[in-house]
């Protein structure tokens, strides 16, 4: 895999917890069960004789295509989780993600306004959290999901302290 164009040289990436795969699987299951149920309604109505349109082939094809796409996303989830990484440098935090469309975000400590730790019910049960970085730019969507709770708390304090030190030095 060629990542020289997107990864800064000499960076030691830390990965998120492999337990984050479970969080993503629960999100996948909930979202896809609801979507398949909604997309299957026309098929059910056609089979019950309540509707004459759409034709049976179309009523079957739409949920079938959705199912294939859902299974493809299911296969990708573990790989997507392994692709998430972060690195603390002297002046900034790097966040990396993506398989096909890779992205490396650089968040300077001096631009951080506050650092937030969020925990959902599935994350909480697995001892994980999501670190959210809020900067002076409204367009910055820097978040680091799947961190062990202790690491999330440590990063929150560390990044807040570094951000305050950089702002004081301005």
Explain the overall architecture.
The protein has 170 residues and is of the alpha+beta class. It has two domains: 62 residues; 85 residues, PH-domain like. Helices cover 48% and strands 24% of the residues. The protein has four helices and seven strands. The strands form two sheets. It has a four-stranded antiparallel sheet with strand order 1-2-3-4.
Task: Give a brief description.
By secondary structure, the chain is an alpha+beta fold. It has helices at residues 20-47, 56-82, 121-126, 149-168, and strands spanning 14-15, 85-88, 92-97, 103-108, 112-118, 128-135, 142-148. The protein has two domains: 20-81; 84-168, PH-domain like.
- What structural class do helix, strand and pairing data support? alpha+beta
CATH fold group of the largest domain: PH-domain like
The domain count comes to 2
Low confidence ranges: none
User: In the CATH hierarchy, what is the class of the largest domain?
Assistant: Mainly Beta
What is the CATH architecture assignment of the largest domain?
Roll
Q: What characteristic shape results from the CA principal axes?
A: elongated
User: What integer is the average pLDDT?
Assistant: 91
The proportion of residues forming helix, as a percent range, comes to 40-55%
Largest sheet: 4 strands, antiparallel
Strand order of the largest sheet: 1-2-3-4
SSE arrangement, N to C: EHHEEEEHEEH
Radius of gyration: 21 Å
Beta strand count: 7
Amino- and carboxy-terminal Cα gap: 40 Å
Number of helices: 4
**Residues in β-strands, percent:** 15-25%
